[in-house]
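Entry for the shared binder. Reason: the reviewer on the internal report wants the predicted structure included alongside the sequence.
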Amino acid sequence: MTPKGAGIHFIPDQERGQWQHVTPGERFKIRVSSAQTMGAYSVIEIVADPGNGVPLHTHNKEDEHLIVVEGTLDIASGDRRRDVPAGTSVTVRRGVPHAWCNSSDTPLRMLVVFSPGQIEGLFRATAGIDDVGTITAIAARYGTKLVGPPLHGTAHSIHSPQRQPIREGSIHPQTAREGDAARVASFTPHVPR
């Protein structure tokens, strides 16, 4: 028998799923807030234009599950770097350095599940801010630490708010695969069967 208080917990989306920008070329929408799941998880939809990405960072409070809906995710997690196509997901465990970018010529769309939730506050607080120092300080309040640069080939991230061409002689994301991130274990791709 189920207790009367157990069962379905419904809290409406207070934000009405508004799109916000992290940097020009990367936008997000909070699809499910941690308030709607009693803190268990949050779901954020991210759309990244070609060349957009995030620098190497860690989360010390949550695991991150990236579900690729459209496009191809170029991700470095621990000491591995892989292309992850649509219909595939990747789990990055808390504490593991990781970075990702859209190295393709088409938009990348992902659903990102953070468990437990609460980190959507970081996304809200940094929306539209282009100062790396300010972003770093806000991120630290949410248990996220920036620990390195974006992946080789990322033309646009919080470290470069304006699109810049990839310099001649730099490593292109399609040719640099292994060893781009810190040497820490834990890359778990999940490929549908």
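Summary line for the report: The chain has two helices and twelve strands.
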